[in-house]
Amino acid sequence: MPGTEAIDPRYAEIDNWPTIDAVTAMIEGQREAIEALNSQADAIAAACAAAAQRLLSSQGRLIYVGAGTSGRVAVQDGVELTPTFGWPEERLLYLLAGGLPALIESAEGAEDDVADAERQIAEHAVNAADVVVAVAASGRTPFTLRAIEVARARGALTIAIANNASTPILEAVLHPILLGTGSEIISGSTRMKAGTAQKAAVNIISTTIMLKLGKVYQGQMVDMIVSNAKLQRRAAGIVQMLTSCSEEEAMAALKRGENSISKAVLIAKGNTPEGAAKLLGDNGGILGKAIAALGEK
Asked: Residue by residue, what is the 3-state secondary structure of 216-267?
């Protein structure tokens, strides 16, 4: 498999192609990007299981590290975890080359700043309770590589996603994930195939971790943050489905449970708000375990 910076002669004249041919080629490239995950299912599953165990047994953080496109892909995944799964914001951290301003402004030179990587790791006191996910298309980005090396030395569980084989970042971590997407249709534009594969991988990793942490029950987002009218309706629907109560009963349970879906489910099953809170507290905040404690499946 050629590297991400390799030139593919098939596309040397793509700027002169009919529009439909260029679009079709790019669609095919996106399909190939997703297919690159197939060979990594075992590696991804192992990384997720280890990460969930680390986060379950501590108050550690899920930390994303990256530069440029890879950093933005990582942040895009992380910011969804609080509204979707109720993952605490204080247990999320983003270490980016160039800092958070690099999300909206190019800071390409920052990717070489290894001193900044060391500074950010130290400033945020990364430690053995944390899980660090590094993303780098080339697998050689100095900022990202140094950050993951220092994080591992501090005891953090380290996962790396790269699109080139036999690269330093994959050798530096406990859980390497190689997404061999090869050369890009537009030479060197890793926001295309490499970026798509990265986005799919971090989505799968974070979602699987949340599954293992009990943030999902019977396929539903039971720790979702209810922040608007649309989500209120969705939350009520989840309570209805999990308890077979009426819409009115579901809305009333949500109100009594202060918009916590997990509490509302337990309330709709006949518990008081205080009893629901205690059940969840006694079972690590996991609805499935709380329901099992009631003697239900």
From this structure: CECCECCCCCCCCHHHHHHHHHHHHHHHCCCHHHHHHHHHHCCCCHHHHHHH
Q: What angle do CA 94, 97, 103 make, to 5 degrees?
A: 65
By the 10 Å C-beta count (0-12 exposed, 13-18 middle, 19+ buried), 228 is classed as: exposed
Query: What's the CA gap between 135 and 144, in Å, rounded?
Result: 7
Q: Map residue 62 onto helix, strand or coil.
A: strand
Query: Does residue 66 contact residue 139 with C-beta atoms inside 8 Å?
Result: no
How many residues are recorded in the chain? 297
Look up residue 28 and give its two tokens: 């095919």
pTM passes above 0.90 = yes
What are the contacts of 149-155 at 24+ separation with CB within 8 A? Answer: 150/117, 150/118, 150/121, 150/122, 150/126, 151/63, 151/65, 151/121, 151/126, 154/121, 154/126, 154/127, 154/128, 155/127, 155/128
Taking residues 52-69, report their average pLDDT: 94
**Contact call for residues 141 and 70 (beta carbons, < 8 A):** yes
- Token look-up 């590094």 returns 134
Active site residues: 80, 111
Q: What distance in Å separates the CA atoms of residue 279 and residue 269, rounded to the nearest whole number?
A: 12
Structure tokens, 230:
């649309």
Q: How many CB atoms lie within 10 A of CB 79?
A: 15
Contact yes or no for 129/60 (Cβ under 8 A): yes
Q: What is the pLDDT of residues 237-290, one digit of tens each?
A: 999 999 999 999 999 999 999 999 999 999 999 999 999 999 999 999 999 999
Structure tokens at 146: 């140094």
